[in-house]
Amino acid sequence: MKKKENNKKKIIGIIVGVVCIILIIISINANRKIGKIENILNSISTFIQKTELFPISSLKKDCKSDKTESYTIQKNINTSLEKEIKELKDTLDLNHTLTEYSPINATILSRNKSYWFNTIMIDKGRKDNIKKNMAVVTKNGLIGKISKVYSNSSEIKLITSDDINFKVSVAIKTNEIDNYAILNGFDKKTGYIKASGIDKTTEIKKGDTVLTSGLGELFPGGIYVGTVEKVLSDKYNLSKTVLIKTNQNFNDIHYVTILGEKK
User: Fold this and answer.
1) Which helix (H) or strand (E) holds 195?
2) pTM to 2 decimals?
3) How many CB atoms lie within 10 A of CB 140?
4) What number of helices (H) and strands (E) belong to the chain?
5) Does pLDDT of 61 surpass 50?
6) CB 3.0–4.6 Å: which of 12, 206, 225, 259 could bond 210 by disulfide?
7) Span 127-138, pLDDT tens digits
8) Distance (Å, rounded) from C-alpha 17 to C-alpha 13?
9) Domain 104-263 is classified in which CATH homologous superfamily?
């Protein structure tokens, strides 16, 4: 029985791998229009990934022979489920605060291990009224924007991305004054997001709130990003860089909310 299950998983893994490789080849140009073939391949990949999200029943069957191992695995599963249920509840509660927009809730489908902090795939797409450049949030604040849209899924570009062309304008609130900066980096060791373009004379202190500014119309203004953790000066003392602490653990995201069209 185990051998059949393992073979089945291997076959599914190979299919997903082949589909992903084809999608990568097709998607070399990120700005081009997504074609029918790519949409079909992405839909197949999405279906397989959704199927693979629920391995609990097979885990239970394989562990019946060892009660101790079964108990440990079941305990881990219960803990994980409790955590995800809480995250889902937080996501649903968030909908009540987003009165200006039509929120669209989505579940994370996959992440590329090689580009863990760059992009995330979700299970909602064009059929769910998702559009490119829509802001994506959790209860902890802004996490990114929609960068690609397929029929049944979409790609989120995270604010932790190393894409130098992805810039987010933010307002750092110091003593009720907005000081503008640009998010442009992420420190994986500390987990802080970097913001630059701040004049050396600007007064910014630890604990100041950082929100999206609304400039450039990429994101709505007023979305929470984090708080200032540290202020640094460049080696020539011409400008300042700010390290921002967010409440979001970017290693652990299961559900997100997309800010849809304005009501």
Assistant:
1) strand 192-199
2) 0.69
3) 17
4) 4, 12
5) no
6) 225
7) 999 999 999 999
8) 6
9) Rod shape-determining protein MreC, domain 2 (2.40.10.350)
